[in-house]
Amino acid sequence: MEDSDFKRKQISSRKLWEALTTTLDVFGPSMKEATILELQKNGLDLEKDTREHSLADIEEKLSLIFGEDGTNVILAQITKKLAK
Q1: Do the Cβ atoms of 67 and 8 come closer than 8 Å?
Q2: For residue 84, what pLDDT is reported?
Q3: What ranges in the chain are assigned the alpha helix state H?
Q4: pLDDT by residue (tens digit) across 22-62?
Q5: Phi, psi at residue 21, to the nearest 5°?
Q6: Residue 49: CB partners within 8 Å, gap ≥ 6?
Q7: 10 Å Cβ neighbour count for 75?
Q8: How far apart are CA 64 and CA 29, in angstroms?
Q9: pLDDT for 51
Q10: Inter-residue long-range contacts of 32-40, CB under 8 Å, 24+ positions, other chains counted
């Protein structure tokens, strides 16, 4: 599967929430909480959402917070966690 295909693949919010929060643990609790709040403000609440989302959805919202480079690092870690 190509990278762009994988980014568009729909994944359950629960799986994405687990991968995201585990990835954000490296920032410490304050930064993790602030990031989650910003994602929620920007319309992405994976904790309460029951729909499926793609990595492209998360990438769009994370880039508003971390820019392209930061988002690429975070997405690489999320992708590794989802592959397990």
Answers
A1: no
A2: 83
A3: 3-8, 13-24, 29-41, 55-83
A4: 999 999 999 999 999 999 999 998 888 788 899 999 999 99
A5: -65, -35
A6: 13
A7: 21
A8: 20
A9: 86
A10: 35/65, 38/64, 38/65, 39/65
Alpha-carbon distance of 78 to 62, in angstroms, equals 12
Q: Map residue 10 onto helix, strand or coil.
A: coil
- 47: tokens are 């904790």
Q: Please tell me the pTM assigned to this model.
A: 0.85
* pLDDT computed for residue 3 by the predictor: 66
CA pair distance 22, 17, nearest whole angstrom? 8
Specify whether the CB–CB gap between 77 and 35 falls below 8 A: no
Length of the chain, in residues: 84
